[in-house]
Amino acid sequence: MTDSSPGVAAAVEGELRLLDPAVRASAGLLSQVLHPDYREIDSSGRVWNRDTMIASLTAVDAPRPGQMTASRMSGVQLADGLVHLTYDTETKGHLAHRSSVWRLTESGWELYFHQATSFGSAADAGPDTGPDIGPDIGQDAGPDTGTGG
User: Fold this and answer.
1) Exposure of 54 in the CB half-sphere (CA atoms within 13 A)
2) How far is CA 66 from the centre of its chain?
3) Rounded to whole angstroms, how far apart are CA atoms 8 and 76?
4) Residues with Cβ < 8 Å from 8, sequence gap 6 or more?
5) How many alpha carbons lie under 13 Å from residue 31 in its C-beta half-sphere?
6) Which of 50, 52, 145, 147 is most buried, by the most CB atoms less than 10 A from its CB?
7) CB atoms inside a 10 Å sphere around CB 16
8) Predicted pLDDT at 11
9) Contact present, 123 and 47 (Cβ < 8 Å)
10) Per-residue pLDDT for the chain (149 aa), expressed as one digit of tens each?
């Protein structure tokens, strides 16, 4: 179930902002979206921090994502200034469950945590609960770097 709070709407907007190739390729723009304490666990189990994520996404030779779709986007405001989003992505046959935590700071809503977990088939995803909306932060930008994201 998706919460209709302004915080959830802002977090979804932030995830969508991370789809923009100009944002993904810009250290300055990524710095505006990623919380200073950002952490990500990608689908291979690697842990990323804000600096390693930005370096990976903005490297001259960084792989650029292929066509990716996101589905089953769901969000809930856990507390004032804290939102949790979950969704699935598919790109080039790679399927992943995704989870993001967004925090409200003095600068606005920032991605604080992201995790991706690979799964085998669309049947493993569960019931479809929402429209396709697009990818998260780091898919195909380094070793599955997820948007955390």
Assistant:
1) 17
2) 15
3) 6
4) 2, 75, 76, 77, 83, 85
5) 6
6) 147
7) 16
8) 95
9) no
10) 567 899 999 999 988 787 677 888 899 999 999 999 999 998 788 999 999 999 998 998 887 766 667 788 899 999 999 999 998 888 778 888 999 999 999 999 999 999 988 888 655 555 433 322 233 444 433 433 444 44
Burial of 93 (0-12, 13-18, 19+ CB in 10 A): exposed
Distance in angstroms (rounded) separating the CA atoms of residues 46 and 133:
26
Contact 111, 33 (CB under 8 A): yes
| pTM as predicted | 0.76
What pLDDT shows up at residue 96?
87
Phi, psi of 34 (to 5 degrees): -90, 125
* Exposed/middle/buried for residue 26 (C-beta within 10 Å: 0-12, 13-18, 19+): middle
Paired tokens of 44? 């291979």
Query: Closest Cα to residue 16, out of 120, 107, 131, 143?
Result: 131
The label of the residue with tokens 């923009």 reads 20
Q: How many residues does the chain have?
A: 149
Residue pair 131/125 in contact (Cβ under 8 Å)? The answer is: no
